[in-house]
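Design request, tokens follow.
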């Protein structure tokens, strides 16, 4: 029932960064990078993971289990042996000079390395200290990490490690919370994620002690589980009612479409196909000739359906929000006046969010839809 259990981060800034688009779709009056104030200003969240995500600070002991275990990883041990003294040097710099970022080290003074994590040995070493839990992210400047020692960032009572079994239970419950209703295959996507057999055993344990409830899902085989706290929400939905906690504070997605982020949990990693029958693959890392849609395509949510997608770009030289491509799932949707108005309002909301002075539909929408959407966008912008 909960759409967000973590905020996945991505550095690409084509329209806006994925994490900001995700929050813009959910939080009234959200402004770009506002999440950083809560993560690094108020210290309510921390960064973790190979696929980077921001998570609540109170969860740190469970994720520290993985951080501490990473220090025994053969790849880390081999890397450390190949760079003797480097981690000690970075520890000393953090202790004496922290917070520090990669930019604080001149390339001429460092050893050049060939790594996804950086071109200077110092940048990779700082990453390794973060990965193994000795350092945390103090702040970000233009998305670049600024590191400091963990004891200067996290509350002392949270700088501890949960047991392996406690961590497995916690992560599985996170997985159930993330999915809302989940089957008994796989586990939460973290290192050491359980395979199907052990995952089923753990879910049975959680069901036995009441941490999850087993439910039947019409049309699907196998066991499914929900959190007890989510059962009232399910009951409301089965009565075809929107739960009170889900009522929008302003416009609904029927009033104004929502452009989902590429890494939005609704659409990413095949969830849109399972939930909406909407095939979506983020093609940003595909060669141009292998892309079906475009470089930075955003699914479009109208009401409770994914009805279209648009290839978007913010041209910063002209401060123009550009729609480079647009595809409807059903042609009839493009003839719906209510959709045209909702599309226009959604485009206006996005234009306002990225602070673009102009909107360019580039002739990619059907003429009648383009005309109505442009009119609704202008009216929304006032």
């Amino acid at each position: 029932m909960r759409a967000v259990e973590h905020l996945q981060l991505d550095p690409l800034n084509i329209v806006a960064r994925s994490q900001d688009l995700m929050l813009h779709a959910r939080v009234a009056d959200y402004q770009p990078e506002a999440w950083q104030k809560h993560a690094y200003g108020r210290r309510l969240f921390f960064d973790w993971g190979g696929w980077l995500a921001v998570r609540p600070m109170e969860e740190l002991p469970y994720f520290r289990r993985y951080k501490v275990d990473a220090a025994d990883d053969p790849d880390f041990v081999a890397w450390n042996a190949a760079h003797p003294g480097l981690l000690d040097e970075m520890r000393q710099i953090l202790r004496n000079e922290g917070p520090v970022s990669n930019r604080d080290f001149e390339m001429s003074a460092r050893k050049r390395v060939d790594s996804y994590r950086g071109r200077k040995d110092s940048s990779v070493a700082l990453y390794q200290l973060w990965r193994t839990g000795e350092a945390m992210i103090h702040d970000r400047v233009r998305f670049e990490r600024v590191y400091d020692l963990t004891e200067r960032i996290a509350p002392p009572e949270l700088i501890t490690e949960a047991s392996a079994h406690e961590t497995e239970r916690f992560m599985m419950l996170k997985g159930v919370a993330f999915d809302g209703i989940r089957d008994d295959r796989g586990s939460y996507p973290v290192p050491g994620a359980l395979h199907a057999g052990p995952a089923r055993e753990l879910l049975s344990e959680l069901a036995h002690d009441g941490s999850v409830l087993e439910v039947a899902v019409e049309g699907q085989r196998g066991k499914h589980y929900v959190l007890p706290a989510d059962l009232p929400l399910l009951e409301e939905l089965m009565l075809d009612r929107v739960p009170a906690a889900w009522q929008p504070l302003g416009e609904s997605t029927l009033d104004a479409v929502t452009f989902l982020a590429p890494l939005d949990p609704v659409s990413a990693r095949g969830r849109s196909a399972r939930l909406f029958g909407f095939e979506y693959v983020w093609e940003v890392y595909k060669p141009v000739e292998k892309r079906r849609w475009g470089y930075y395509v955003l699914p479009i949510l109208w009401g409770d359906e994914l009805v279209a997608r648009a290839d978007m770009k913010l041209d910063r030289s002209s401060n123009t929000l550009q729609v480079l491509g647009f595809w409807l799932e059903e042609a009839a949707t493009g003839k719906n006046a209510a959709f045209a108005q909702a599309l226009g309002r959604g485009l206006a909301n996005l234009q306002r969010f990225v602070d673009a002075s102009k909107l360019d539909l580039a002739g990619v929408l059907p003429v009648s839809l383009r005309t109505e959407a442009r009119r609704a966008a202008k009216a929304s912008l006032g």
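Comment from the thread starter after seeing the answer: thanks! The mean pLDDT is 92.
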